[in-house]
Amino acid sequence: MSTPTFERPMPVKTPTTAPFWDALAEHRVMIQYSPSSQSYVFYPRVRAPRTLANDLEWREISGMGTVYSFTVARRPVGPHFADAVPQLLAIVEWDEGPRFSTELVNVAPEDVEIGMRVKPVFCDYPEHDVTMLRYEPADR
Question: Smaller CB count within 10 Å for the chain: N or C?
Answer without folding.
Answer: N
